[in-house]
Amino acid sequence: MSGQDEQKPIGVGLIGFGTIGTGVVKVLRDNAEVIEQRLGSRLRLVRIADLDLDTDRGVDLSGIVFDADASALIADPDVQIVIELIGGYDVPRKFILEAFAAGKHVVTANKALLALHGREIFGAAASASVEVAFEAAVGGGIPVLRSLREGLAANQIETVLGILNGTTNYVLTEMESTGEDFDVVLKRAQELGYAEADPTFDVEGIDAAHKLALMTTMAFGAEITFEDIPTTGIRGLLPIDFELAAQFGYRIKLLGIAKCHRSEDGQERIEARVQPTLVRDSSLLAKVDGAMNAVLVIGNAVGPTLYYGAGAGEMPTASAVVGDLMEIAREIRRGGSGPVPPLSYFPEQIGPKPFVPDAELSGRHYLRISVKDQPGLLGRVTSLLGDEAVAVETAMVRSANGSDSIILLTGVAAEDGMQRAIVRIVELDEVTEMPRVIRIEEEA
Amino acid sequence: MSGQDEQKPIGVGLIGFGTIGTGVVKVLRDNAEVIEQRLGSRLRLVRIADLDLDTDRGVDLSGIVFDADASALIADPDVQIVIELIGGYDVPRKFILEAFAAGKHVVTANKALLALHGREIFGAAASASVEVAFEAAVGGGIPVLRSLREGLAANQIETVLGILNGTTNYVLTEMESTGEDFDVVLKRAQELGYAEADPTFDVEGIDAAHKLALMTTMAFGAEITFEDIPTTGIRGLLPIDFELAAQFGYRIKLLGIAKCHRSEDGQERIEARVQPTLVRDSSLLAKVDGAMNAVLVIGNAVGPTLYYGAGAGEMPTASAVVGDLMEIAREIRRGGSGPVPPLSYFPEQIGPKPFVPDAELSGRHYLRISVKDQPGLLGRVTSLLGDEAVAVETAMVRSANGSDSIILLTGVAAEDGMQRAIVRIVELDEVTEMPRVIRIEEEA
Q: Would A166 disulfide with which of A178, A275, A311, A330, CB 3.0-4.6 Å?
């Protein structure tokens, strides 16, 4: 250890002193010894910047400059790595670009920013010959991005799919186990701190789409933002959906799914979506309960691999942030004069890739159709589906609380045929609202 | 990509051209394009050395020198990274040390060698300022070692446990689903290629102990060889064990388990063992079937994380080997004159750590005791257990094929008390053979 003790500590600045930021301070302090052992030098938290200077975060800040001046933090010559944990788009984007311009490396957990402005951010980092690390942006403490870009680097990635949002997984798990309605469970999740006061980003699948966009870019080199990803949230799911799914041998999970379709001539096309999905109850993903996350990555050499852990929270997310700090610190220690090759991938390798049209996608589906006067209707619905080459494998009629529902499991059918059939089913007088369609993912 | 195209390819030599070696050739060929994109330079397989020059491996070897001279391969100035895939102890050890002496980096999948001579190998690599990478040694294609040393680097690791051997997991899964005896299932596993002709290393838990020793060293910096790890294999498990485990809500898995007990004063003590274990059927590990592997890693910041995938096989293992090649190739590209800090951990940080004595370990157990004349015996067995402070939670007596068994689930009790009770139970005249004791692991 003698040679290593002489290493100068590596200076870190933290912008954004909320929950995750507090976790970072704790991890740097609690695990200082093991970090130094593994790194060969110390990580020293030099400065913290946050607009809220009053809240007591319950951590000792002795020896750390703490003020509201993020630009001064970035300019501080003692700060070699800047951690951005503000959230949002414009302000963090400004600080990150400022840090690059000052030659500082950046660690961020900001999936929303990267999912929208990733190309700009990665390009700017490469131009400035600095690193930007963002393991915490997907899957909290689970080292899934690192696995994707390093451990599985020798693979053509075929599929990335998973439970990417802990709030919605908590709500779905609770709805299933209690039989309660969405609103009831969401309210409890908010009271317990599993869901935010405004749950839109989580519940509507937007947070999952942010994360999926990032992974799609990393896995397939596809230039994609979350706005490109068809996204359906978990509102509108009813207790009966969970009950019937279980009866059919499935569970309902909100999945982000991205696949790369490679043709013989080497053309690559992307399939990506976020939606409630039926997964077989014998699958590993079906066992991922509560606020936990899991990502399945399938590579052409390695086959299926899965990564599981806490997808959010103070300490798990801080674990990923400090892991990134250590990786960059090792780069700094390694020194060298020229530009350091990016840790992740080459921005110039990322480009637009076409999406697979719905007509070429196919799958099995669960359908719940609310109807009145149901007698005889089942035959007509089945016939409308048949017109679009959608076979019905299982059909049942349920009456509850004075309303009737037709529930169907279909065979494998083209997405566009399915959608056309739904349009025609909605036109039936007896159908009282938009049918609930849940895709079955056999690969999960 | 212009600047990167000019990079010289990085030369690789392969010693050992068996199943995994063939997989490596395939991955380097099939995924050449994506490897070059991610690395910024090509990996060129320059030479292969193997004693068997005759077998047709079904891969194109044009442009590759293929002979039986491993030393010439190591000495070849075009070879920068040597892949060792021979297996065994002495011969690979010799070649690896020879490669270090020649200034060559090494990638190996040889867990047996590293579990026995790890300290020497890692020390020699550090002295020679070269890398030794070995992701494929544990969990096949699953990037679990990389997660341990990089993604979770900010954590004090508390527990590493998992299904580390695909052969035994296949046998256990089959025994459970068919109700067949061990010998029947093992024979079929051999016919299907899941088990080797001499299955000792797998079936007796030795292969799992090799892998656990490596992970224990990496996770806790504990100098440990597989010989230090108490190891019990899967022979002797009966169909009734699976049936009753299921009835109690458990499944039987062969787990490698290592935990680090940290006391207030910072002292670290190790608990490590390989043995058949009851895991709750609601756990993720319970869902890991057939030849798949999974490792649970618990860190003090990240909490529980799990890594799942194919633990063996041509292509999954080759995925890990080529991933290691890419990591080292990136180091080479990065250049720099001085010694490169080790990728994994500092050998000088590894030292002997005491084991936790059995008296301080506790747990719940499943006991199956073969008896004759069982009436009245249950009370005496329960009383012997009670004398050692082992409470009985559930007890049943089973008669099958003319022999009786007492089956017990115990409460939490100290390991040494449990062992003393077993000694006294064995002394009973009515007990016909050594009781089967299976530990219950609640953390799994």
A: A311
